[in-house]
């Protein structure tokens, strides 16, 4: 699959009860980025968040082919060597799971129970997708491109390969890549080896892994992962709206040291440097505020490491003895601000409510 979240309950209503065995099973298969890894400009591959939708396919690179067809003048196949022979680009891209924050919602949509750790920033290397599409000569009648991965399973009662689409205009943007390296190494099997789509700025479900086929079509794609999953819905009968670009968000490295089980933080009194990262798929991050017990002050911002990557922020907090609630919120260049109230939806998509960290000082 892509690196996105699973869609919501699919017949199971949201709950305010404890985690189910099915949710625990998903949580054991997938992983979030430990928040202390926000200290790295580039997330080490082993710490980058991961979501595998069905099973990880076993793929021999020498037998793998990328099929390009549909409404194109010149359908063809590419080997991995063919893709690697094309001009390459390397981009630092922040990728977030569309379901990040789902487990914080109440009632809780049933699926992968992310808190806030479904995030990471990597250096991706690959061939611009539009260079491949130029070879195929897309028909003027084509309106979308459908991307098919080799991962296969059952969801919503349908047996399926994982598939997503982009409009032709989106697919032709120069920084959409057919990526074969992550952090200057071949893709790991779980991250889509030998080839994956990379769509900067969008939630991870768009960046189809284990890519096997690209098909140009003359109408909007209505496969399950496009029409039913990854939608903002109020209830299961609401057709909703498609989830696309990442909402603005800031996260902090929880300061001090943790309690093993509760993860509550313990901080020494006095000056404490709190730092984190902020990003948005809908513009650049222009402001980050640090909150203590409901009061807000501006944090210091450093330049982003790339147009599609997060910005480092920091705040010098004078920790006073007692119990405190810390928070952070970002504002992007479109004027969007992280909400402090819960933005609930049926599938638990794109919950960018501000992060809260409880600390004991002294």
Strand content: 35-45%
Taking all residues together, what is the mean pLDDT?
A: 95
Q: How big is the Rg?
A: 21 Å
Mind summarizing the main beta sheet?
6 strands, mixed
Give a written overview of the molecule.
- The protein is mostly beta strands and 362 residues long.
- The chain has 2 domains: 21-242, Sulfite Oxidase, Chain A, domain 2, CATH 3.90.420.10; 249-361, Immunoglobulin-like.
- Helices cover 9% and strands 36% of the residues.
- The protein has a 6-stranded mixed sheet with strand order 14-15-22-21-17-18, with no helix packed on it. A 5-stranded mixed sheet has the order 2-1-10-5-6.
- Strand 1 (66-70) and strand 2 form a beta hairpin.
- Residues 1-10 have low confidence and may be disordered.
Keywords, separated by commas or semicolons:
disordered N terminus, Immunoglobulin-like, five-stranded mixed sheet, 2 domains, mainly beta, Sulfite Oxidase, Chain A, domain 2, single chain, 362 residues, six-stranded mixed sheet, 5 helices, 9% helix
Blueprint (SSEs and pairs):
Elements: H1 21-29, E1 66-70, E2 76-78, H2 80-85, E3 89-96, E4 119-128, H3 129-136, E5 144-155, E6 158-167, H4 168-171, E7 177-182, E8 185-186, E9 196-198, E10 211-217, H5 224-227, E11 231-232, E12 241-242, E13 249-252, E14 257-258, E15 265-267, E16 270-279, E17 285-292, E18 295-298, E19 300-301, E20 311-319, E21 322-332, E22 355-361
Parallel strand pairs: 1-10, 15-22
Antiparallel strand pairs: 1-2, 3-4, 4-7, 5-6, 5-10, 7-8, 7-9, 11-12, 13-16, 14-15, 16-20, 17-18, 17-21, 19-20, 21-22
């Amino acid at each position: 699959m892509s690196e996105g979240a699973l869609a919501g309950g699919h017949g199971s209503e949201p709950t305010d009860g404890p985690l189910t065995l099915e949710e625990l099973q998903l949580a054991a298969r997938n992983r979030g980025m430990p928040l202390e890894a926000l200290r790295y400009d580039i997330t080490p591959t082993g710490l980058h968040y991961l979501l595998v939708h069905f099973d990880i396919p076993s793929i021999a690179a020498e037998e793998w082919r990328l099929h390009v067809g549909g409404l194109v003048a010149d359908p063809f196949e590419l080997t991995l060597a063919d893709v690697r022979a094309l001009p390459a680009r390397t981009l630092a891209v922040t990728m977030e799971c569309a379901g990040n924050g789902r487990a914080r919602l109440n009632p809780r949509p049933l699926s992968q129970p992310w808190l806030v750790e479904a995030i990471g920033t990597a250096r991706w290397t690959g061939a611009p997708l539009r260079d491949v599409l130029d070879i195929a000569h897309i028909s003027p009648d084509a309106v979308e491109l459908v991307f098919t991965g080799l991962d296969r399973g059952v969801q919503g009662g349908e047996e399926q390969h994982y598939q997503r689409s982009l409009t032709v205009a989106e697919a032709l943007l120069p920084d959409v890549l057919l990526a074969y390296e992550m952090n200057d190494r071949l893709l790991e099997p779980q991250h889509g080896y030998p080839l994956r789509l990379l769509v900067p700025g969008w939630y991870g479900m768009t960046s189809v892994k284990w890519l096997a086929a690209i098909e140009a079509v003359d109408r909007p794609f209505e496969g399950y992962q496009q029409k039913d999953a990854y939608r903002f819905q109020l209830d299961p009968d609401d057709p909703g709206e498609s989830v696309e670009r990442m909402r603005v968000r800031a996260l902090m490295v929880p300061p001090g040291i943790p309690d093993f089980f509760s993860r509550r933080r313990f901080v020494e009194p006095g000056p404490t440097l709190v730092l984190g990262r902020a990003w948005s798929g809908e513009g650049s991050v222009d402001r980050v505020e640090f909150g203590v017990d409901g009061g807000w002050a501006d944090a210091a911002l450093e330049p982003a490491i790339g147009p599609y990557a997060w910005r480092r922020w920091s705040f010098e907090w004078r920790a006073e003895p007692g119990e405190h609630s810390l928070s952070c919120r970002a504002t992007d260049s479109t004027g969007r601000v992280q909400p402090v109230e819960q933005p609930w939806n049926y599938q638990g998509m794109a919950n960018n409510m501000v992060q809260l960290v409880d600390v004991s000082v002294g």
